[in-house]
Structure formats: structure tokens, C-alpha cells
RNA sequence: UGGGUAGUCGCCAAGUGGUAAGGCAACGGGUUUUGGUUCCGUCAUCCGUAGGUUCGAAUCCUGCCUACCCAGCCA
């Protein structure tokens, strides 16, 4: 399904990071490019991570280098095996493979510890007894320098002894920390003697209870990159401030490789939120039904919704990579799925909101099987046969008693084509006592079988339909944006991001589908003719398939009708 | 207010001194048994702003404005 659309597309991928890599290759600084995707296993991956994954693995692929998957697991209090499994699944699903290069920062705990002792021996790190609050208080502010810790000038021997006893579990959490000795007056606040190690009596998902001291991100990340010989360490903009510290550790230690950190802007998508904290909150507060709720911007959610890996990769290519903060239109993502699915999803007829039609001049017990192409964009998709008889359903919104200007669907005495079937003309409108339309009486033209007429008369409107006696019942889940505004983070004073939650982000309806959909399997994707693209949800049961709407078709009539 | 970044079409984004790519969206039109697809066309005399250098600047220099990030023993 994917290969076909992949080859007729050639997005020229050029960005400032690739330019740097090109220069490094040309100058001979590097001969092989190694990148890495370094998630912390404390939550599910989202579309923002997909951007990073496509960037890192994409570069490795294009430069014939390699991209490592490395779990940044230095804070056991937040990390779980469940997350590492979901992350691996999502990266694979997106179409990338790290091969042998699966790593964990925790693999380097011993090496990192040895490096720390070396820093102590070189007089570049010390054991501090200040409490967390005291450290904060002596750090200074954005405009004022901090003050030196009273423990800053301990002897190397004492520092070493204390550090070893920290590791041995002799002290309580928070009683001691290992700090780099840099500069309490640095305008880079992260350089004001940052904490390198803290004591935590917490079980680690991989190292168990082997360690009770854990290294901090700034200390761990640069050295992990170095150990793996990463050439270009790509991260998001908020780490720009940390780069001096990244370089400091690399330069103070006798490392073989000195990776270069390069920062790019993280992805923001309109009508959704992207922070792990907020996504976790949506899950915990049951606003959505779990991490893979189809409204979530998580990879798992998008997969369940029906987005294809190809469409997400294409999206990542199209949004580009730069240093300016930005918010991408959700429209672009929708364009990418439609483009993929238009080529690859078979067409099928489903009447979302059924209105019964009785064809008065059609024989009572006759059933015909009409041939229908599965995908006009792909002749290889073949044909199928759809039953047709006297009673059928059409879409309720395809009929209007008082037709507006430019309306070319059904209305009293007008003629339309039933896709793949016949021309019908509306003769009578049946209503209940409240005036609601309950049924339409129509006639059909037996000469128009297949949807053509010999006299070549123009029938502008074409409706989809299903045969009443053969239709199957299906549940349809119509999804819309989780939020009603492009930027949910802009809220009135005193409100939080939930202020803009869309109360109509999910609508479940019962519909009638053509019988072929009985065979649909979980994850199958279809275009419901004239409606949109839908994917079979895993909540389906044999008696009742459940479809998620991935995205609607472009609807220029809806636009016209608004005028 | 210290430091770090960024400001090119409604939204992304190329461009790196030689006179504004491309995509999405939008708009107009042709084709069409999906008001889908597809096709054709329109869409920045102008690059946050004010000066300066230059034959020539979005690209170099200076000032100013705006936005984002940094004061976790989170990442």
C-alpha cells in the first residue's frame, strides 16, 4: 500500500542541518554521519517526536550513516518499561529501524560514574551539602550572579570519599549532590555549578537497585552522544542555553568523540497541544480514552485514527526544519493523508445518515448485482459487485425539498444518478405527522443501468447509496479537533488549556454500509464515497464493524453553500 | 532589566551581495458516474523597523522593535 505513493514523490529535503552536515563531509571533519533519537521513556510519542524521528533517521538514511535509538533513562522516578515498548513500536511503525543500535543511557552508568570521579580528581567537581532550596537560593537570578557554595573548595580526597559513599548508599536523598565546578557568575545559568548526580533510592526499570545515585540530563546526554560517536546531536531549541554545558563536559573529559549539538524548532500543530504533560493530563482526567484515543496527536492515536506512516513521513518532509518557532496548519497534515489515501484506499459506499427510497417502477423481488470499480485512481484495485433492489438508502443531506441555487442533488422531480446504478427521479415525498421526511418515492430509468443513458442527457448529480435489504449496520466515529481554536494555549485570565476543549470532538452514529464491508479487517482503510477516509477500529466485532473517520473529503459544495 | 535565539505571502519554508523557490490554504476556470481526484491560472516591486556601506543588499554594518527560551537534585 505504501510503496506506490512513495515513489511518485520527491520532496527536496534541504535545511540548515543538512547544510552543516554537507560542510562537515566536504571539509573532511566527518566521513560517516551518526545521529540518534533519544526519547525519555516517560510517555508516549507524539507527532512532534515524529518530526525528530524523521529528521534523525532520514539523515542517517540519506547520508548512508546510522541513527541510534537511545532511551534517556536517567530519572527512574518517571520512567517505565511500558513506555520503552510503545516507543519502539511507534518508531518501527513509522518505518524506521535502528538495527543493532539500541541503547540506553543507563548502559553507561558505570562509565559516567568513572568520568565523574575523574572530574573530581581534576578538581572540576565537588560534593555539595546544600539542600535543594539552598542551591536555588544561591544560584542568583537572571540578572544577578550566584554565590559559591561553602562546600566548593573541599579537598579532592574528601570529595572522592563522599562521592563513593553517596554511591554506597550511606546518605539520605537530598543530603548530598555532586556539582560541576564551573562559574557561579556565568550568564548561562546552567553553568552555575550544575548538579551532576543526585541520590535517589528508586528502582530503575533496567538497572534495578544497583544504583542509588543517578546522573542528570546535561551530564549524561553529551557523554552518551560521545560514547556512541554521534556526529550531530539534534535537539530542540530550549536546549540552546545548555550547549555551553554540553561542550564543557565534552572538553573537560578525555573523550574520543566530540559531537556537535544543533538545535531546531519543535513542532507545534494548530488545534492541538503537544506537551507530554498536557497529553498525560488529558489521559488521566479522562477527557480522552487513553493514549491511543484517535483524537490524540500521539503516534498511537494517529495510528488508531487511521493515519498512514507514509502520510506522517510526508508531513515531516513538508514542514521543513528551521530555528524559528512556528505553528503548522493542521490542514497540511490532512492534505498529506488525503494524498496518500486517495491513491491507496478502496472506494466503498456507506450511507451515514440514511433516508429510504422506494423505486416504484422497480420489480418487488428483483435483486441485481452491479459492477463497481474499487479505485478509479488504481485500475489494479479491481472491481466488485453491489446488490441493488427496490428499496435503497441515500444520504439524507442529498435530498432537499426546496433546492437552493447550484444544487444538483435530489429534489422533487429532479433526476440524479445513483453511482454505478441507475438514474432516478423523485416523484413524491412522504412525511410523518411532524413533517419529517421519512421516505422518498422515486422512479428509475431501466435504460440507465450502470449510470449511463443512450440519449446522453446530462445528469449532474451523483449520489452514493446502499441497498436496504443487504446493508449492514456499522458504527461510525466522527472525529473533530480536540480544541476549538488554533492555539489552545491562549486562554482568558484564570483559565487553563481545557477552556477551549471541543465538546463535539467525537460523534458516534449508526450507519448503513454496503455488504462488502463485512470482510473489513482492523486497520483497513477505505474511502467512503463522497464522505471521507475511514479506518476500521479495533473495537469492531464481527456483527458490528466500527469505523473511525480519519479525515473528510475536500468539500467545495459545503463552501459554496455557506455563501 | 543578564544571557541565548529568532523575525521572508494567511500557515510552513528556500535564499548565504546580483536583483524574492516550493508546499499548504485561498481565489478563478477546464475535465469528471465521487461538488473527490486531476489540469490550467492568480496569489510578496518586497524580506520586523530606521539608517548606513555598495554600481547593486532579504543577504554586510549600526540602532531600535517584537516573540521565544534559561533561575528542577526534570528532560
Write up what this structure looks like.
With 563 residues, this protein is of the alpha/beta class. It has three domains: 13-264, HUPs (Rossmann fold, 3-Layer(aba) Sandwich); 276-346 and 474-562, Ribosomal Protein L25, Chain P, CATH 2.40.240; 350-464, Ribosomal Protein L25, Chain P (Beta Barrel). Helix content is 26%, strand content 22%. The protein contains 14 helices and 25 strands. The chain has helices spanning 3-7, 16-26, 47-62, 81-94, 109-121, 132-138, 156-167, 217-227, 243-252, 276-284, 299-305, 309-319, 330-344, 556-562, and strands at residues 34-37, 66-71, 102-104, 125-128, 177-180, 195-199, 213-215, 232-236, 260-264, 346-348, 350-351, 354-359, 368-373, 383-388, 391-395, 415-418, 423-431, 437-444, 462-463, 465-467, 472-479, 506-513, 525-528, 532-536, 546-552. The protein has a seven-stranded mixed β-sheet, covered by helices on one side. α4 links the parallel β2 and β3. The longest helix has 16 residues, at 47-62. The protein binds one RNA strand of 75 nucleotides through α6, β5, β6, α8 and α13.
Compact summary:
By secondary structure, this protein is α/β, with parallel strands linked by helices. It has helices at residues 3-7, 16-26, 47-62, 81-94, 109-121, 132-138, 156-167, 217-227, 243-252, 276-284, 299-305, 309-319, 330-344, 556-562, and strands spanning 34-37, 66-71, 102-104, 125-128, 177-180, 195-199, 213-215, 232-236, 260-264, 346-348, 350-351, 354-359, 368-373, 383-388, 391-395, 415-418, 423-431, 437-444, 462-463, 465-467, 472-479, 506-513, 525-528, 532-536, 546-552.
